[in-house]
Amino acid sequence: MSAEPVQEFFSIGEVCELTGLKPHVLRYWESQFKFLNPAKNRSGNRVYQRREVELVVLVKHLLYIEKYTIDGARQKVDEHRKKGQLKPNARRALDVHTLASIEQELAEVMNILGGETPRS
Asked: How many CB atoms lie within 10 A of CB 20?
């Protein structure tokens, strides 16, 4: 059995779909977080690398879940970077985001099936 190739580059639309963010939010975050600097292809469209998608999810987690301000989130990411913990923390935030998405999808399926939504 062969493994599926892992996608390494994402359009802004794909990043929006993966993260649940709007394009204007991503563009604003690019202006606020220097580490979010996607390359542009020949057409001038943003091309995000997998690492940048993970960082977007980390920023979303810091802002929306942990309730940091933009400055606070920037400082927290710098702190993770200085401690060499940026990648593990970004992956952890991605795991939390993925689980929340799965829970939401399961609740929607339960509603469609007319069942009770699971309580956490």
From this structure: 14
Contact 32, 24 (CB under 8 A): no
**pLDDT tens digits along 17-41:** 989 999 999 999 999 999 899 999 9
84: left (phi over 0), alpha (psi -120 to 50) or beta: left
What domains can you pick out in the chain, each with its CATH number?
9-113 (1.10.1660.10)
Is 89 within 8 Å of 58 (Cβ atoms)? yes
Q: Which phi-psi region, left, alpha or beta, contains residue 100 (left: φ > 0; alpha: ψ -120 to 50)?
A: alpha
pTM given for the model: 0.75
